[in-house]
Amino acid sequence: MTQNTTNKNSAEEIFASNSKRLLKFINSKVSLLEDAEDILQDVFYKFLKLDDIAIENAVGWIYKVARNKIIDYYKKKKEEPLSSYYYEDSDEFLDEIAELMFDYSTPDAAYLSSVVQAEIQAALDELPKEQRFVFEQTEFYDVPVKELAEITGTPLNTILSRKHYAVKFLREKLAHLVQ
């Protein structure tokens, strides 16, 4: 076995033993799990590219790179989704609902998905039209709230308020789906 292969195997072992904890750390700083996984992958790639893993504190180095990647992520990101800074746990709630909604892995999951979609549609139909519009635009079409305010000529705080009440209503109405 060559020295380079030995180093790569050692790097993989170091990273594997720390990846779950590192992902949890990254995800605590980045609202979307998919983005956190992308950052983790970038850190792993950078770690594997090292010619020599004899860094005094490899784990410390990994976390430092992860912090830098998180900073880069926020520098590149134009606007954070509303739910990540305006609502305490709406991202988690919406992610759980989306997970149920789009799981077709088994016949039972596909059936559950159709039931969840029907319940979401019924709940959306109960919202006042302004709240529903804001929710659908920001969550389904990824229109940033600032842009939505500009497009509609509605004050930003009104858009934020409508989104807040829509998410609050949907959270209460659909809570039974994620328990």
Topology:
Elements: H1 3-29, H2 33-48, H3 58-76, H4 82-86, H5 90-101, H6 107-126, H7 129-140, H8 145-152, H9 156-174
Helix pairs in contact: 1-2, 1-3, 2-3, 5-9, 6-9, 7-9, 8-9
The total beta strand count reads 0
Share of β-strand residues: under 5%
**Main sheet characteristics:** none
Going by CATH, the homologous superfamily of the largest domain would be PhyR, sigma-like (SL) domain
The mean pLDDT is 77
Distance between the termini: 51 Å
Radius of gyration: 21 Å
Q: Into which percent range does the helicity of residues fall?
A: over 70%
Describe, in short, the structure shown:
The chain is mostly helical and 179 residues long. It is built from nine helices and no strands.
Could you walk me through the main structural features you see in this protein, from its secondary elements to its overall organization?
Helix 1 (3-29) packs across helix 3 and helix 5 crosses helix 9. The N and C termini lie far apart (51 Å). Helices cover 77% and strands 0% of the residues. The protein has nine helices and no strands. It is flat and about 60 Å long. By secondary structure, it is mainly α.
